[in-house]
């Protein structure tokens, strides 16, 4: 059983009946509407800055112990969440982060800064974006209005492609594929060079994309301000039947063609056996000229036909066609790929053959084992090379500071010099190991004679 962690201790001499005090410094989330609500990930990063700590460090020291107790591995896994958007989603992990931060900040509104209010209303499929995106003009507005730059919750939704305020496309946040380079800290700061993302180029969005983003923002407003309305009777089936009768005289096929979906897919929605995902709900509402909330609640409202100017989004990835070829042909190609070394791991070989990894493993277990071992060795070598590259920069700064100062530099001095030159930061354990290695290299006889 995990011991209960005391988040706050009253100072000596304070009355026992004193009101509770938060473990974290007070910070309120920004934004007051669906178009401007701040998401939880952005709020936590700003909270870390208020405590003069990096997000991962604050998560590891304060948030992770509340969620996972004393397990070192579990705490590290929880702390790593601060680098992504998972805490903005609808999973149990997002629930845990909301509960932990609510305890630490004594706020009761943090769940509204996530997609948790949508959990029982729409399916999870295609709900949370897999990549972090932003609107450069929103960041520019933040700078001009002298407020901190922050990420909007609307940007975390996968179906939102544009900013409804400035009518420009959202831009994907660029970052290094590995841990090399500059670790990000605050929202609106580039992870590549530390510059402001407000200076990024903004591409105009279509009226359709802007309208759908605005409709999604209105849905967030409706759910946040009137949650009791969505507690029951969230079924689009009555609305769809009403729309078929009013707009297409009861002909479901015509309605399906208007939406750009198959008749079978529409039949599943109208029968109530399948719930449409948020991108499909947004598509239905746009094509019927109504609000997304009306579709979800099954309201019978005034409708009008609105044609989609762009093709409807493909939500399911296209199936692979490589398995349709003869087995002997696939085996011959696979042997050639393995022998030539064209694939470094199983996924790459599956992509070259246009088959799934599961099918490839069943096709030739022996070749699959070779590819798995090759992939493990490739990952190990990339990890070693990345670590040695980071140590080379550390040792370079260590040697330069030693010549300049005439004495052995401290770890902090080396860290600051490396960060100033390259933007690389080191964790404590990594920097401690690198310092011992650098000092051992400097103590070698040949290096000592050079220094003299």
Question: Can you walk me through this structure?
Answer:
This protein is mostly helical. It has 4 domains: 1-190, no CATH class; 233-297, lambda repressor-like DNA-binding domains (434 Repressor (Amino-terminal Domain), Orthogonal Bundle); 322-378; 387-451. 50% of the residues lie in helices and 2% in strands. The chain is built from 18 helices and 4 strands. The strands form 2 sheets. A two-stranded antiparallel sheet has the order 1-4. The chain has a two-stranded antiparallel ribbon with strand order 2-3. Helix 15 packs across helix 17.
Descriptive labels:
452 residues, mainly alpha, 434 Repressor (Amino-terminal Domain), 18 helices, 4 strands
Short description:
The protein is mostly helical and 452 residues long. The protein is built from 18 helices and four strands.
Q: Helical element count?
A: 18
Global geometry: globular
Instruction: Tell me the structural class.
Output: mainly alpha
Our measurement of the CA-to-CA distance between the termini, rounded to an integer number of angstroms, reads: 60 Å
Number of strands: 4
Element pattern in H and E: HHHHEHEEEHHHHHHHHHHHHH
What fraction of residues sit in β-strands? under 5%
Tally of distinct domains: 4
Instruction: Please estimate the helix content.
Output: 40-55%
């Amino acid at each position: 059983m995990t011991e209960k962690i005391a988040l706050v201790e009253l100072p000596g001499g304070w009355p026992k009946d004193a009101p509770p005090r938060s473990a974290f410094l007070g910070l309120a989330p920004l934004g007051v509407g669906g178009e401007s609500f701040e998401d939880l990930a952005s709020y936590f990063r700003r909270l870390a800055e208020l405590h003069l700590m990096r997000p991962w460090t604050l998560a590891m020291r304060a948030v992770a112990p509340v969620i996972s107790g004393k397990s070192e591995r579990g705490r590290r896994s929880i702390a790593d969440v601060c680098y992504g958007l998972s805490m903005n989603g609808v999973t149990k992990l997002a629930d845990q982060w909301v509960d932990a931060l609510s305890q630490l900040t004594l706020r009761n509104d943090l769940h509204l800064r996530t997609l948790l209010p949508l959990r029982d209303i729409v399916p999870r499929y295609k709900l949370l974006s897999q990549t972090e995106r932003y609107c450069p003009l929103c960041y520019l507005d933040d700078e001009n209005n002298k407020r901190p730059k922050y990420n909007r919750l609307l940007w975390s939704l996968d179906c939102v492609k544009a900013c409804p305020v400035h009518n420009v496309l959202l831009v994907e946040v660029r970052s290094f594929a590995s841990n090399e380079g500059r670790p990000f800290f605050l929202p609106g700061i580039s992870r590549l060079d530390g510059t402001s993302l407000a200076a990024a180029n903004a591409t105009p969005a279509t009226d359709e994309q802007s309208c759908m983003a605005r409709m999604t923002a209105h849905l967030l407003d409706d759910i946040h301000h009137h949650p009791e309305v969505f507690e029951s009777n969230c079924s689009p089936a009555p609305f769809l039947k009403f729309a078929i009768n009013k707009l297409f005289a009861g002909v479901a096929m015509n309605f399906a063609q208007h939406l750009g979906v198959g008749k079978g897919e529409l039949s599943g929605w109208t029968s109530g056996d399948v719930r449409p995902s948020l991108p499909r709900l947004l598509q239905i509402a746009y094509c019927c000229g109504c609000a997304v909330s009306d579709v979800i609640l099954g309201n019978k409202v005034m409708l009008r036909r609105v044609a989609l100017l762009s093709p409807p989004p493909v939500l399911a990835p296209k199936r692979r066609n490589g398995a349709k070829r003869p087995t002997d042909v696939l085996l011959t190609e696979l042997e050639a790929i393995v022998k030539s070394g064209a694939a470094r791991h199983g996924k790459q070989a599956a992509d070259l053959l246009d088959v799934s990894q599961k099918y490839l493993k069943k096709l030739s277990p022996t070749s699959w084992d070779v590819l798995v071992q090759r992939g493990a060795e490739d990952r190990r070598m990339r990890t070693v090379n990345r670590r040695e590259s980071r140590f080379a920069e550390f040792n370079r700064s260590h040697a330069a500071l030693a010549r300049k100062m005439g004495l052995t530099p401290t770890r902090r001095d080396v860290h600051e010099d490396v960060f100033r030159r390259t933007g690389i930061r080191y964790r404590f354990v990594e920097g401690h190991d690198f310092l011992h290695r650098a000092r051992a290299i400097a103590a070698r006889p040949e290096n000592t004679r050079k220094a003299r």
